[in-house]
Amino acid sequence: MSLPFRHLTRSSSRLSSASGPLSRPSWGASYTSGTRFKSSLLDIPVAADQVTLPDIDPSKLEINRTTKPKTPPLSKDLVFGHTFTDHMLMIPWSAKSGWAAPRIEPYGPLSLEPSCTVLHYAQTIFEGMKAYQQTNGTITLFRPDMNMRRMNTSAQRIALPGFNGEALLELIKRLVRLDSRWIPTEPGHSLYIRPTMIGTQRAIGVNPPSEALLYVICCPVGPYYPNGFKPVSLHGTTEYVRAAPGGTGAFKLGVNYAPGVMPQKAAAKLGYAQNLWLHGPEHYLTEVGTMNLFVVFKHADGTHELVTPPLDGMILPGVTRDSVLSLARSHANGTQKFELPDKMVVTERSVSMKEVKAAAENGSLVELFGAGTAAVITTVDKIGYLGEDVIIPTGADGMGPVSRTIWKELVGRQTGTIPSKWSVVVD
Ligand SMILES: Cc1ncc(COP(=O)(O)O)c(C=O)c1O
């Protein structure tokens, strides 16, 4: 059964044009809302009346600039996620009045009551996206429509309110423009943008919150691997799972991340950099730390197969994952040729540790890597699995024949050195 907690009257079709140009809508939107969704599981009452409430409206933006602008640190001193820019975007929501006027405020603490639902029931979702500044000063975002769509999907999964993704994107652009002096321009540097939504209703009790806050903060970040690519080691985790069938792994919910911290510490104690999340008795590979996962096999007939696990409800539909698949598929079907193996197929299918281990032993494993916004591509050199290390091939530069080219093509499109419809200008 679908859960139409917020039926957006205007955004969903536009947002589905994943990489097409975003048309400029007339703001002052509204959405239709039943006050509660019907659920036989949760037994939540359904309001029969449908009311029209205001959606996010960029034309109502109020800007309160900081009177104490900070000095951005030197790029070489940046620690990922530890420095925040001067401003943040705030958009409160209530079930009674919909989305209130957006505000850009000086970055600072939120005032929340200790009874807020987010603090008890983890009613929080977030996104991770980046803005890049080109040498000519142009600022771009990479496929931000995908983040907006995923954020709406995640909101729906935990009954937070839906919103017009194009309107939020317009406001994010305003915030990025206002804090643009914070975008580091050195290669590999960017402004990491963190849209977040929390349930703010003051109430003990698990329900869709009647109040929420959407806010966006930004941090200048350097490259994840400042000294070039260094493959990481993984602990093939058989004792904990990140996601399960019917669970929430396919959504970007805060609740998915805290349970990964202790297994991460356990992996580090064993000498591995990250967890390789496995699933089921077959030990299917799912994700690496907080990245999607790719494996490359070379089959007996010389064909290279780029494999990633299917979006079966346990895998986060990553923007980078989709971009890797799209680039590799263009090469495989001949639409656009890259420096990739001639005979190549791209598949979304399950891969078990048995298959990876056998391929590592018989020489048909070419490489294995993670993909995500923060690090873009992370190659892997070994997997600790059931007491032994499975050795994964990597090239002398730490990359393999597929990851090297995909990384170059992706970064080019992200930073604007390779023109692409994925690159959205912040004008
Ligand atoms: C669990 C998980 N998988 C995959 C990804 C990669 O997604 P994206 O490429 O959209 O950053 C992320 C991103 O943070 C993540 O948290």
TrEMBL record:
Reaction equations catalysed: L-isoleucine + 2-oxoglutarate = (S)-3-methyl-2-oxopentanoate + L-glutamate; L-leucine + 2-oxoglutarate = 4-methyl-2-oxopentanoate + L-glutamate; L-valine + 2-oxoglutarate = 3-methyl-2-oxobutanoate + L-glutamate
Keywords associated with the record: Amino-acid biosynthesis, Aminotransferase, Branched-chain amino acid biosynthesis, Pyridoxal phosphate, Transferase
Taxonomic superkingdom: Eukaryota
One MF term in the entry's GO annotations: branched-chain-amino-acid transaminase activity
One annotated GO biological process: L-valine biosynthetic process
InterPro entries named in the record: Aminotrans_IV, Aminotrans_IV_CS, Aminotransferase-like, B_amino_transII, BCAT-like_C, BCAT-like_N, BCAT_family
Pfam family of the protein (one): Aminotran_4
EC number: 2.6.1.42
UniProt cross-references to CDD domains, sorted A to Z: BCAT_beta_family
Record-listed N6-(pyridoxal phosphate)lysine modification sites: 252
GO cellular component, one term: mitochondrion
Cofactors, names only: pyridoxal 5'-phosphate
Record-linked Gene3D superfamilies: 3.30.470.10, D-amino Acid Aminotransferase, subunit A, domain 2
Family of this protein: Belongs to the class-IV pyridoxal-phosphate-dependent aminotransferase family.
Name of this chain's protein: Branched-chain-amino-acid aminotransferase
Protein source organism: Leucocoprinus leucothites
Lineage of the species this protein comes from: Eukaryota, Fungi, Dikarya, Basidiomycota, Agaricomycotina
